[in-house]
Design goal:
InterPro entries: ATPase_NBD (IPR043129), Hexokinase (IPR001312), Hexokinase_C (IPR022673), Hexokinase_N (IPR022672). Its EC number is 2.7.1.-. It holds the Pfam family Hexokinase_2. The protein has 461 residues and is α/β, with parallel strands linked by helices. The protein has two domains: 1-50 and 212-444, Hexokinase, domain 1, CATH 3.40.367.20; 64-198, ATPase, nucleotide binding domain (Nucleotidyltransferase, domain 5, 2-Layer Sandwich). 43% of the residues lie in helices and 19% in strands. The strands form three sheets. Strands 1-11-10-9-12-13 form a six-stranded mixed β-sheet, sandwiched between helices. Helix 1 (7-17) runs parallel beside helix 12. Bound molecules: adenosine-5'-diphosphate. Adenosine-5'-diphosphate binds next to helix 9, helix 10 and helix 13.
C-alpha cells in the first residue's frame, strides 16, 4: 500500500489509548467518589454539581389516587396518567401520549413553548379513559420531569440556568419553570398544578424504588448520561442542616461533567473541540449514546485518510459529523455472518463505500474498542458512587442487597456495552461484594417516578 501508516497500526494505538485495565478503573472510581464529596461540600467546588432534589420522602407503595406526569427533556415531550391503588392495587392503570416538539418551538418564546405543552396536556386530560377516577373539586397534580440545567429551590420550583440539547427558547432562562408551566395551564383553563419538579434520573430512582426498597442508585445511559442516588442529609455539608437532622434525600450528581483520569484519545479531543460545549461533559462524551458512533466515525475517517482503509479516496459521507450513529455500531458488532455482510451494508449506506472483509474486521474491532471503553468507564463510575456511599456507612451498601436501577436506550439496546459495564463492576468489587450489588434494567421508571413524587408531595393530606 502507498499509505504512510497502516490501519493496523492506528488500531494498535487506539487499543492502547482506550485501555481500561483494573488499576485505571480503580482510579476513576476513586476520583468519582472524591468529586462527589467535593460537590456535596460546596457549590462550584467540583466537576460534579451534586444538585439537591428536595425529594425528602421516597415512594413507599402506599400512594393512592390519580396523578399525571409530564416529561420534557429532548425532542419529544410525554404525558402520562397514572392511577395508583395503594399497597394492594399498586399501579392500577397508566396511559401515555408522546408528542414531538415542533422544531420552530425550540426557537420560540417561553410562552409559546409552554402554551404548546399545556395545550397538548389539555387534550390528553379531555379524553380520560374509564379506569381513571379523579376526585371532583380537586386540582389535578402533575410531576414535571424537566431534564435541563435547573437550580432547584424547592420540590415544586426551580430556575432554568441554561437551555441545552438544541433548545434556544427566549425568556425562560432565569425563570421558575414550574411557574411558566402553571401559568400556561391557567391560560388553557386547566385546573392542574405542578406538585413536583424532578430531574429524569431522580424520577427513575423514585420509580424503581416504588417496586424495590433496595434501589439506592439510578443511572441513565441514553443520548446523554446522568446518575442520582440516595444520600443521608447529614452527609451534605452544603445543605447546612442541623447535625441531627437525619433522613435521606436524592442527589442528582450530573456525573456527565466528570473528567478526571479518563483514557482519552486524539479522536475524543477533536470531537470535544468541535462540539457546542468544548471542555464540558467529558464523561458523557466518552460513555453516552450521542457520541460513541461519532468517535468510531472519526477513527474510521482517519483510517480512510491516512491508511486508505476504503480505497484511494475518502468517502464523502464518512466526513460528515454524526453520520455514523451508535445504533449502527451496535448493529455492526452483532454481525455474526462469515463475510460480515451487515457491516458491509451499513458501511455502504452510511459511508457510501464498498468494503473488503479485511476492512470490515477492522471496523468491528474499532466499534468494540469504543463500546468497551464506554461500558467499563460507566461501570467504574457506578462503583465510585457505591464506594462513596459505603465509605459513609460501613456495610450498609456492600454488606446487603443493593440495587442500581439502569435506564436509557444505550443500556437497553447495546448488549456488549451492558456486558462490559457489568464486567467492570464485578472486577472492581470482587466476587463476594458483587453478589450483593444488582445492576438491573428498570424501564421507563422516570414517568411513573414523577407521578409518584407528585403523590408523595400532594397538597391534599
Ligand atoms: P434519550 O436519552 O434521548 O431521552 P433514550 O433513553 O431512548 O432517549 O436513548 C436514546 C439513545 O439510545 C440514542 O440516542 C442512541 O444513542 C441509543 N440507542 C438507541 N438504540 C440503540 C441501539 N440499538 N444500540 C445502541 N444504542 C442505541
Amino acid at each position: 500500500s502507498s499509505s504512510a501508516v497502516s490501519a493496523a497500526s492506528i488500531l494498535t494505538k487506539l487499543h492502547s489509548d482506550c485501555a481500561t485495565p483494573l488499576p485505571l478503573l480503580r482510579q476513576v472510581a476513586h476520583a468519582m467518589a472524591a468529586d462527589m464529596r467535593a460537590g456535596l461540600a460546596a457549590d462550584g467546588a467540583s466537576d460534579l454539581k451534586m444538585i439537591l432534589s428536595f425529594v425528602d420522602s421516597l415512594p413507599t407503595g402506599d400512594e393512592n389516587g390519580l396523578y399525571y406526569a409530564l416529561d420534557l427533556g429532548g425532542t419529544n415531550f410525554r404525558v402520562m396518567r397514572v392511577q395508583l391503588g395503594g399497597k394492594e392495587g399498586r399501579v392500577v392503570a397508566t396511559e401515555f401520549d408522546q408528542v414531538p416538539i415542533p422544531h420552530e418551538l425550540m426557537f420560540a418564546t417561553s410562552e409559546e413553548l409552554f402554551d404548546f405543552i399545556a395545550s397538548k396536556l389539555a387534550k390528553f386530560v379531555e379524553k380520560e379513559g374509564g379506569k381513571f377516577e379523579s376526585r371532583p373539586g380537586r386540582t389535578r397534580e402533575v410531576g414535571f420531569t424537566f431534564s435541563f440545567a435547573v437550580k432547584q429551590t424547592s420540590i415544586n420550583s426551580g430556575v432554568l440556568i441554561k437551555w441545552t440539547k438544541g433548545f434556544a427558547v427566549s425568556g425562560t432562562e432565569g425563570r421558575d419553570v414550574v411557574a411558566c408551566l402553571n401559568e400556561a395551564m391557567g391560560r388553557q383553563g386547566l385546573n392542574m398544578r405542578v406538585s413536583a419538579l424532578v430531574n429524569d434520573t431522580v424520577g427513575a430512582l423514585a420509580g424503581a424504588r416504588y417496586w424495590d426498597d433496595n434501589v439506592m442508585v439510578a443511572v441513565i445511559l441514553g443520548t446523554g448520561t446522568n446518575a442520582s442516588y440516595v444520600e443521608r442529609v447529614d452527609n451534605i455539608p452544603k445543605l447546612h442542616a442541623p447535625k441531627s437532622a437525619g433522613g435521606s434525600t436524592i442527589i442528582n450528581t450530573e456525573w456527565g461533567a466528570f473528567s478526571r483520569g479518563l483514557p482519552l484519545t486524539e479522536f475524543d479531543r477533536e470531537m470535544d473541540a468541535a462540539s457546542i460545549n468544548p471542555g464540558q461533559q467529558i464523561f458523557e462524551k466518552t460513555i453516552s449514546g450521542m457520541y460513541l458512533g461519532e468517535i468510531v466515525r472519526r477513527v474510521l475517517h482517519r483510517m480512510a485518510k491516512d491508511a486508505t482503509l476504503f480505497g484511494d479516496s475518502i468517502p464523502e459521507k464518512l466526513q460528515m459529523p454524526f453520520s455514523l450513529r451508535t445504533p449502527d455500531i451496535c448493529t455492526m458488532q452483532q454481525d455474526s455472518s462469515k463475510d460480515l455482510e451487515v457491516v458491509g451494508s451499513i458501511l455502504y449506506d452510511v459511508a457510501g463505500v464498498n468494503s473488503k472483509l479485511e476492512s470490515r474486521k477492522i471496523v468491528v474491532d474499532v466499534c468494540e474498542t469504543i463500546a468497551k471503553r464506554g461500558g467499563r468507564l460507566a461501570g467504574a463510575g457506578i462503583v465510585g458512587i457505591l464506594q462513596k456511599m459505603e465509605g459513609d456507612s460501613k456495610g450498609a451498601v456492600f454488606g446487603k442487597r443493593t440495587v442500581v436501577a439502569m435506564d436509557g436506550g444505550l443500556y437497553e439496546h447495546y448488549p456488549e456495552y451492558r456486558r462490559h459495564l457489568q464486567d467492570a463492576v464485578t472486577e472492581l468489587l470482587g466476587p463476594e461484594i458483587s453478589k450483593n450489588i444488582i445492576v438491573q434494567h428498570s424501564k421507563d421508571g422516570s414517568g411513573i417516578g414523577a407521578a409518584l413524587l407528585a403523590a408523595t408531595n400532594s397538597i391534599y393530606p
